[in-house]
């Protein structure tokens, strides 16, 4: 089951056209990913292994304008695990409707915090990410 995060659209999120500025969606998606990591205990898990998530690619589609007063519900789930990177799928819906405001595929690698280099996704790390994938 995807992790859900609600964010209320405020006036300072809007652009001159009175809908959510495209750059704000990146902040909303990041907030939802942090919530996902915190709620699943992954922050502690990654810290214990001395690893950090690093985003290497974001592909985002803007589908429908969200405006002040809307509450956005962001679903976050793992969608793919490779040998060196993994992908998270996020969808932003206007809460209370089926309206998809935006969706994104986020690719990340895990860096060893001591060396600053990407590590292979194997062992305990792979098991943890595969558990997340199965829950999505």
TrEMBL record:
It is an enzyme of class 3 (hydrolase). It comes from the Bacteria. The keyword Lyase does not apply. Keywords: Hydrolase. InterPro entries: 4-hydroxybenzoyl-CoA_TE (IPR050563), HotDog_dom_sf (IPR029069), YbgC/YbaW (IPR006684). It holds the Pfam family 4HBT_2. Gene3D superfamilies: Hotdog Thioesterase. One of its GO terms (molecular function) is hydrolase activity. Its EC number is 3.1.2.-. Belongs to the 4-hydroxybenzoyl-CoA thioesterase family. This is Thioesterase family protein.
